[in-house]
Amino acid sequence: MKRIVYREWHIPPARYWGILGILVSVMALGGLAALYLEHEGHWVTGMNNFVVWGVPHVFAVFLIVAASGAINVASIATVFGKGAYLPLGRLSGLLAVTLLIGGLLILVLDLGRPDRLLVALTHYNLRSIFAWNIYFYTGFVALVIAYLWSMADRMGARFKHTLGVLAFGWRLALTTATGSIFGFLVARQAFDTAFLAPMFVIMSLAYGLAIFILVLMFTFHQEERVLGDQLLRRLKNLLGVFVAAVLYFTLVYYLTKAYGAKNYDLVGWLLFGGGGYSILLWIGWILIGTLVPLAMFWHPRTRRDRRFIAVACALVILGGLAALYVILIGSQVYPLQIFPGQTILDSGFADGIKVADSTYHPSLPELLLGLGGVAVALFLTAVGVRVLQFLPDSLADAELPADTEEPSAGKVSYVDDLATG
Amino acid sequence: MMKHPDETIDQGRRDWFGLAAAATAAVAAPGVILHLASANTAPEAQPASSAVRWGLLIDTNKCTSGCRDCVDACDRENGLDLQTKPPTEAPTAWADQKAVWVRKVKLADGLTGRVTNLPLMCQHCEHPPCVDVCPTGASFKRADGIVMVDRHICIGCRYCMMACPYQARSFIHQPMHDQLTRVPRGKGCVESCNLCVSRRDHGLPSTACADACTAAGKGAIVFGDLKDPASPISLALKAMPSRQLREDLALNTGVRYKGV
Ligand code: SF4
Ligand code: SF4
After folding, report:
1. What tens digit of pLDDT does each residue of A239-260 get?
2. Hey, CA dihedral for A360, A366, A370, A375, is it positive or negative?
3. Domain hosting residue A389, numbered range
């Protein structure tokens, strides 16, 4: 029986503090933006009474969705018995928690009354999927921490399988609920579909894994730990499958929307007439975020080159942000159909007037708040891997555990326990 | 059987509003002791009753282009005219950010070209999506059918604004410097038409918009109790065809339209 050894991330202090310094600066800017928003009110943002959720929500939803995708790596090992993923479980859990915290922080700081967080925690409307999400998110953090404990502590080892299965189920519920925040909005044509829930699950797998691979490559590269080609190829291929699946879901989403005559205008607008939104959809989401990385993952010239793999992962992440921008903001900008069959000539409140493209201009504080959340997630990750043993000493292909045929608590053939330095 | 949760909550809140109203009055006016003594029977001490359902009927045939008397009356009644544009903000951005409870809309039928004018405000849905989605329960429906926001527990998440099919809600984007006691307003919360709820609680007969429309000689807005078969609004609804906006959503709105 072979033991996986984990070690703290010991890059030279100067470099480590340099990284933390950069992250803290971005966090500080995000914090200042939040204070500014809180003090001045939301008029300093591009958000208004039509586009009520803007760039901060794009980042927040992205991070939350990616968090539930990041835990997937651990699930593949624990739930699906893929031994090679076993040593990755701890980092997967850590990222899941930190990404979620980053995302939630953005959401909270963007509230009109962030000082009333306590109200949100003590008043629940059980009919609200939003209120449910508060349970899902806090429960997820607690569950993943327990799961991490079961991975790291001998005492916890016997709960690991159960916790792993629970975390897997929970994350599915969480992403479904996150997608449903939008899917349940009957008022808005572009939302109003249960399809958004599974679509968010697929997106989470892609974005979470892309972030995971990048963090893994970066941390290993910085410290010159061995990351086996074979393992990287497996991860990259898996990401390719997820990215292709997102593309498939995107196609089906727009096709099903285009099926109903009442949505012709909407789909036409989003795909072709939506100015910046259409460009973002085609160039950002489809081309840069999907087709280019897929080509890099599979083209014989680039697929073995680590630089290309890293760039492809980064493109998947950018594409994900573009996708969420189109889904979240484009769908709000498109006018509500309050009077089907009628043209709105004039309104005291730009209803239906198709100057839609210009109703929302993202502002700097919004962007800083969003980036601040990303920095918080990365900062917590950087601190985590430095002070605790999250990263396996080596991921050389020869040292990876084999897959277990039937994963179960009793049959795990590798003790994944705490190593002492 | 469980008690209907909405109603228990509404009752409590309504009592609270009554109390708050009484307390405010006590501070504001000296001759109030008398008033307090009779508080048990005063309208503001009564809980909102589910025996009534307040609503509006808008006859678009009587509503004219260019008239905005209802909008102005609403602005005055509810202190919306006290909002000030932040000095450095562009007027176009302010137009999209300031709170608006009722707006005029002018429509042309895509086929016939027939032009219709109408005021659009919160439709006081019987099954309000804004109430369903609100995480804290700040967005609530009173027993008398009025949908409004409890400003003490609204956290400003704006999910209700995403959910409203009529874009009837506004978020207070800017700091407030001046406001009316009967319509408290603070930066960071959401609000919308509440059918002049303070008038309801003082037993007054109508809404500011309906009064203004009548005063202008148009009479396009009728306010009243949809549950009372003898009320003018019920009689008018019975006499002529009317419809709900977005009736496909089956929200059973309290605001009805004639001629759209
Ligand atoms: S019209 Fe909008 S704000 Fe008014 S009750 Fe219906 S959903 Fe709520
Ligand atoms: S903005 Fe206020 S009223 Fe609207 S859903 Fe959020 S907490 Fe509820």
Report:
1. 999 999 999 999 999 988 888 7
2. positive
3. 2-340+348-399
Neighbours of A10 (CB within 10 A): 12
Amino acid code (one letter) for A221: H
Number of domains, chain A: 1
Level-2 CATH architecture, domain B54-258: 2-Layer Sandwich (3.30)
- Rounded Cα distance, A12 and A16, in Å: 6
Residue A65 lies in a domain: yes
pLDDT digits (tens, 9 = 90+) for B71-96: 999 999 999 999 999 999 999 889 89
Query: Measured between CB atoms, does A29 come within 8 Å of chain B?
Result: no
Separation CA B168–CA B251 (nearest Å): 14
End-to-end CA distance of chain B: 42
A51, A124, A128, A264, best to mutate vs chain B, most B CBs in 10 Å: A128
Q: Measured between alpha carbons, how far is B60 from B98 in angstroms, rounded to an integer?
A: 26
Residue nearest to atom 5 of ligand 2 (CA): B134
pTM of the full predicted structure? 0.90
Going by the DSSP 8-state scheme, the letter that residue B81 receives in this structure is G
Give the pLDDT confidence of A354-404 residue by residue, as tens digits: 555 558 999 999 999 999 999 999 999 999 999 999 999 999 998 888 886
For chain B, the structural domain boundaries read 54-258
Residue A413, in any domain of the structure: no
pLDDT beyond 50 at B34: no
For residue A320, give the CATH number of its domain.
Answer: 1.20.1630.10
| Residue ranges of A 275-334 with Cβ closer than 8 A to chain B | 332
DSSP A334: S
What is the token pair recorded at A134? 């508060």
Interface test with A, best of B102, B105, B149 (most A CBs within 10 A): B105
Query: Which residues of A are less than 8 Å from B116 in CB distance?
Result: 342
- State which residues of chain A have pLDDT below 50: 1, 406-421
The pair of structure tokens assigned to A218 is 């970066």
For A142, A167, A229, B115, the CA distances from A390, given in Å and listed in that order, are: 18, 18, 21, 67
The sign one gets for the Cα dihedral A167, A207, A375, A175 is negative
In a domain, A407, yes or no: no
In degrees and rounded to multiples of 5, residue B120 shows phi and psi of -125, 125
Q: Has residue A257 been placed in a domain?
A: yes
